[in-house]
């Protein structure tokens, strides 16, 4: 039977949207990591969690078409093997974590160790051809007001900034959320995070703006993004959906709209995929591709 005009138009509309005419679901693409609008860096700590070999994780990321990754601490990894593998696969390490929740940057007794750690980590960054390193403020200190802890974070970052500048690296400070994942952490929300960066006043200290944490803490993602970029506070972004901290499309955040806003704000850096694949890494990568196909 010859299809009628309505059937043809419906099929054409589905095709234009990247959907299968038979199911209405997004078509699988061969290399979903090669996205259309946004450059993503897949977090190989949360993806391929069952794989102990980090080299195999890098190879799995490349097999899906990703050309950039992000990591957590460098101490448990073969630095030379990671560098050689990234060179072989054509993968860029966008950022890695150098200072976590404990000992806290919000305690001045840890500042000397913080500066020493930044110095050592900058050598790793050079080996990995990486220009950003993530730092965290620290968990609450009993009896110390939040404002005082933030002042101590500022002081610690001021001490670390010259080291980062010397090596051409940017320290990216990450604010968390305390409602779901990090109860008892001292830094959450965009306003205090931007205040800290402004007080440090260094081109080598900016924010890692995790949209998952920001959504839980304050919402209005696009509005707060505009404020963050207007203040020249943001160097890097990460995403995950909520609830679940899984890939886009599994929760309540409409990421196609948010990613489109990033484009409008002329953000050209990478966006970290610090999310846990709900089922398989392949399915998560396809969901990321679909969210970026706006």
TrEMBL record:
InterPro entries in the record: HyI-like, Sugar_Epim/Isomerase, TAT_signal, Xyl_isomerase-like_sf, Xyl_isomerase-like_TIM-brl
SUPFAM superfamilies on file: Xylose isomerase-like (SSF51658)
Keyword Repeat: no
Keywords, sorted A to Z: Isomerase, Pyruvate
GO molecular function: hydroxypyruvate isomerase activity
Family the UniProt entry places it in: Belongs to the hyi family.
Name assigned to this protein: Hydroxypyruvate isomerase
Species lineage: Bacteria, Pseudomonadati, Planctomycetota, Planctomycetia, Gemmatales
